[in-house]
Automatic annotation (TrEMBL):
Fe/B12 periplasmic-binding domain residues: 55-319
Main location: other
UniProt family annotation: Belongs to the bacterial solute-binding protein 8 family.
Stretches assigned to coiled coil: none
InterPro entries named in the record: ABC_transptr_periplasmic_BD, Bact_iron-sidero_bind
Keyword Signal: yes
The organism of origin for this protein: Paeniglutamicibacter terrestris
Protein name as annotated: ABC transporter substrate-binding protein
SUPFAM superfamilies: Helical backbone' metal receptor
Keyword Methyltransferase appears in the UniProt entry: no
Taxonomic placement: Bacteria, Bacillati, Actinomycetota, Actinomycetes, Micrococcales
Bilayer-crossing regions: none
Localisation: Cell envelope
């Protein structure tokens, strides 16, 4: 950020007396209808958040999706990823809510100047794993910070955020909608009489990774599917397999893997290294082409992303 913008940010911080908060924040009781602000505090400090923001900004795309789901009005500029081919919001986000919103790249390099330019009156940030981020967002607008990448089910943070912002009705509406879809798909799986062993898998640096990174295993668990034990070996970190260990994958029936924008097939399907292996080509899920790709932005957990991955699993298992 330029010295000019740093001075602007500093001035804003002095005039607005703002500070950030995270998922552990304690909030005041539900305010009366005429209340103008919600006061919250935690180890990051205190903040006076507008009870009804008019220009809210989500610091990461998952935060923008949460704002939409909670019925909070967006600023007309919102961040997106700036890597992996992303040029706009994920196509599984509510497009109507984003119709008049302009995206700007904010990852892996954070663009605080564009955040300032968006002139938000409230910021939601799930990137508090980086303790420098709250310090930089504080002077721009009242910010509710939480660490959405701490390994916890993202829905725990979603619920705390909704409670803090007094939006529990909107939170519960989404949860009810999601559970209804889970129940529907579980019933269809039972009716189909299938009991597949599923895996979240990747191929990187010459090794197969089988793990529960992201939300895939959350969806699998919600549906009552059997997850390969490889995904939770090594203290829950999953398993890394060399090309000489591919036979350990023989009990897996369905594989799910994340891909970048515009990619329909993953390295699991296109790698020359894997395709040169007779063991790999002999695995049943490879022979049956049961490797299912999904948008990598679903991995990190948000209302629309979670629902979208649920739909992807349904399509894969019940075509």
């Amino acid at each position: 950020m330029s010295p000019k913008h740093l001075s602007v940010v500093a001035a804003l911080g002095a005039s607005l007396l703002l500070s950030s908060c995270a998922s552990g924040a304690s909030a005041t009781a539900e305010p009366p209808a005429e209340a103008q602000v919600i006061s919250i505090s935690n180890e990051y400090g205190t903040a006076e958040i507008p009870a009804t923001p008019e220009r809210a900004l989500g610091f990461y795309t998952t935060d923008t999706d949460i704002l939409i789901t909670l019925g909070i009005t967006l600023a007309d500029q919102q961040p997106i990823r700036g890597d992996s081919g992303f040029t706009t919001f994920p196509d599984f986000f509510p497009q109507e809510a984003l119709a008049n919103v302009t995206p700007f790249a904010n990852y892996p390099e954070f663009n605080y100047e564009k955040v300032l330019e968006a002139n938000p009156d409230f910021i939601l940030s799930g990137l508090a794993y980086d303790t420098e981020i709250p310090k930089k967002l504080n002077p721009i607008a009242p910010t509710y910070n939480y660490n959405g990448f701490d390994g916890e089910d993202w829905r725990v943070h979603f619920k705390k955020t909704a409670e803090t912002l007094h939006r529990t009705e909107q939170y519960q509406a989404w949860m009810d909608k999601y559970q209804a879809r889970v129940d529907e798909i579980k019933a269809r799986i039972k009716e189909a009489g299938i009991e597949p062993v599923v895996a979240n898998m990747s191929f990187y640096d010459g090794k197969i990774g089988v793990d529960c990174y992201g939300i895939a295993c959350l969806v699998f668990d919600d549906l009552g599917l059997k997850i390969t034990p490889l995904a939770r070996d090594n203290g829950g970190d999953g398993t890394q397999l060399s090309l000489e260990q591919l036979d350990k994958l023989k009990d897996i029936d369905e594989v799910f893997t994340s891909v970048g924008v515009g990619e329909d097939r993953s390295l699991l399907q296109t790698s020359d290294q894997l395709n040169a292996s007779t063991v790999w080509k002999g695995l049943q899920f490879v022979k049956d082409d049961q490797i299912h790709s999904f948008n990598m932005e679903m991995v990190y957990g948000s209302p629309s992303g979670h629902m979208a991955l649920l739909n992807e699993v349904e399509k894969a298992l019940l075509p």
